[in-house]
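Dear colleagues,

As part of the handover before I leave the project, I'm documenting each prediction I ran so the next person doesn't have to rerun anything. This entry is a single chain, and its sequence is reproduced below.
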Amino acid sequence: MIKITCFAGKRVALFGLGGSGRVAARALIAGGAHVTAGDDQAANIATAAAEGIPTGDLASADWSGFEALILSPGVPLTHPVPHWVVKRARGADVEIIGDIELFVRERQHVCPQAPLIAITGTNGKSTTTALIHHVLQSAGRLCDVGGNLGPAVLGLSPFTPERHYVVECSSFQIDLAPSLDPTVGIQLNLTPDHLDRHGTVQNYAAIKEQLLSGVPRTGLIVCGVDDGLSEAMADRAEMSGTRVERLSVRRPVSDGFYLDGHILMRARAAAATFAVDMSRCPALKGAHNAQNAAAAFAAAKHLGLEDDEIRRGLETFPGLAHRMERVGRVGNVLFVNDSKATNADATEKALSSYETVFWILGGKAKDGGITSLNGFFPKIVKAYLIGEAADAFAATLGSAVSHEICGTLERAVEAAARDAGLAAGPEPVVLLSPACASYDQFPNFEVRGAAFREAVRKLPGVTAP
């Protein structure tokens, strides 16, 4: 745990006692702060109190003595309306920050030279975060990973100059971290998201850009340029005097990384050199993962790794659970768990990554269903429909895609394995990419993905992928 000594002796209000909130409370207390913690849920307050965290009624508290409000990122700061605790803090002119800000301030206070790599973007940030961590670790660097992915950021190892901190940052977390100053700041892409919490896409983009604007001149800004809002961020970042590496999987760039077929190229002053052959990175299929790999390459290079060290890390990355995760093989048939794909946009990335697909889909449908995926129908040998959306998706597939209503995931795996085993071609893929929420049959996408893994494990002759 990272002790927050920069608030020693100060009174601090903390609101939101989920996992990261309780870690933040313990980190503040360990550093000498006087914490009063609250939550809207009585069960969370009881859990915190049982762990020895001081709790109190922040609605009736005297806010004049608080140095700061440490707010859970899940609590509305501005939209649709500020939470009541936010109004109380603002009324008393108490600053409102989150656990990422505590992490940043303590790093500045005790060990500013500790490398910090901060990653954001609408899509791909979890994979990129895990990938950078893997590349650094495989090259022998001391490295912790956390934030929006994995452990709460204040639960990481104490700061030392040689330890690297790879931190995924959501827009909610960045909005509560005004001092964020990463050694490497990465903005992957931006599409409209979380507008119920940010109001407009412009507000959402401005919050994401805060992560880049805090990078010091000695650091590195890495920015995707395949959407207009992110490209505009890269243009503005170049004016700051900090080095900017641009990423594109659609076109060449003059300074940064771009995809040429399956080869990731690194450009400097319009001269391009080989970076990595993406066909040698089995867990990084698809153009979207090439962008993630480019971000990891840029970050690792800035941190002093050699090209061959970076390539080895990219090639040996095992992938993230439930995100195009290779879970098994029967003969030449590959089984891929993409349970995290809870809407059509996410499933599109998986379908674009494979050629001979036996597709398992369905669950609780999102608005629009799968109509946007019809361009991929020709590569789908057969579809296997499960859950509440099965009939509606069968109607969408119609005569364009052979399909079977299986009902349950286990039956779908059995049917897809049977059919894929008879398919021609070098590598038929049984792909769970549901394009649906899981709530009709499973409590979350993780449980759904685990059920897929277990069903594959039971198949006769299954081996590691």
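The two ends are 36 Å apart (CA to CA). The chain has three domains: 5-97, 100-316, 325-457.

All the best with the project,
I.
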